[in-house]
Amino acid sequence: MMTLFRRPIHAGFAPLALAAMFLTMLLAGCSHRPAHVNTPLAPARLGTIETGVASWYGFPYHGRRAASGEVYDMAQLTAAHRTLPFQTWVEVTNLSNGKQVDVRINDRGPFVKGRILDLSQAAARDIDMLRAGTARVRLKVITPPHTEPPQEPVTVTAKPAPPPPVALEPVPDSAAPVIPSPTVAAPPAVVPRTDRFVVQAGAFADRDRAESLRATLEDRLMQARIVSNEAAAGAPSLWRVVVGREMTREQATALAVRVRQETGAALVVAEPQPAPTPATQ
Q: Which residue from 97, 104, 111, 180 has the fewest beta carbons nearer than 10 Å?
């Protein structure tokens, strides 16, 4: 027998009281997430895989301080793990549907037997486990996502304004056509008749090419013919392919629309007249 505060107690009572007090404190501590932990851990090895059951947590922990010291935000892609170092990134795969999400470890948990991960609400939504509450998952340690360094501001030097466009004089319909290579611009026909018009489909320095275009138009439009220009001394002869005969300007303009659909080019020009035949002595 011994006395405490002048009351007799048994000798074995004191150890039993201390054990009961310690057990009460331990149970109370298990019902809360641990306080801020500063113990440094070695970095997790890339490619490490763990399989088990994951859960998720939101309220009332949203806005509270996590074990890493930062404020928990359930809208961010984060998670709680029991042993992985803080700032470790893991790829979480929901094994029931194959959906994946990458999360950053910033808290400790879960403290329920049989679970390996506590996801934030946003991460749980990405792998479609909000309704079920838990899911069987596979964790894989991955490299942190690459973040671009801030770029230096670029100074843009204003370029001088371009000169104003130069107005071009309109070209009348009866002017000589300008035809890209391999066709060649042709001078006006000899002794043109200005009150009658035809449609010029092309002009060539090669008679065979002019003949090929004439044959094509002859099959489709009829009345196609080749007109030869008198060449100046030392200059090559030109062979013009024209369609129609002695039409008014309105008639030639309407025909030019059809010719342009067949060849891609058509100009209304004055009716070419044959050169006068020299008088015989």
A: 180
Taking the C-alpha atoms of residue 73 and residue 66, their distance in angstroms, rounded to an integer, is 9
CATH class of 43-142: mainly beta
Is the model's pLDDT at 96 over the cut of 50?
yes
- 119 vs 109: CA distance, rounded Å: 10
Q: Which fold has domain 193-271?
A: Alpha-Beta Plaits (3.30.70)
Structure tokens at 94: 């929901």
Lowest mean pLDDT among 112-126, 127-141, 156-170, 177-191: 177-191
* Cα–Cα distance measured from residue 211 to residue 71, given in angstroms and rounded to the nearest whole number: 86
Q: What are the b/e assignments for 204-230, b being 16+ CB within 10 Å?
A: bbeeeebeebbeebeeebeebeebbbe
Of 128 and 257, more confident: 128
pLDDT in tens, 62-73: 999 999 999 999
CA 96, CA 250: separation in Å to the nearest integer? 77
pLDDT at 188: 47
What are the residue ranges of CATH 3.30.70.1070 in the chain? 193-271
Distance, first Cα to last Cα, the chain: 169
pLDDT-above-90 percentage for the chain:
35
Mark 115-147 as b/e (b = at least 16 C-beta within 10 Å). Answer: bbbbbbbbbbbbbebeeeeebebbbbbeeeeee
66/61 Cα distance (integer angstroms):
8
Question: What are the residue ranges of CATH 2.40.40.10 in the chain?
Answer: 43-142
- pLDDT interval class at 30 (50, 70, 90): very low
Q: Map tokens 């404020």 to a residue.
A: 71
Rounded distance between C-alpha atoms, residue 230 and residue 161, angstroms: 48
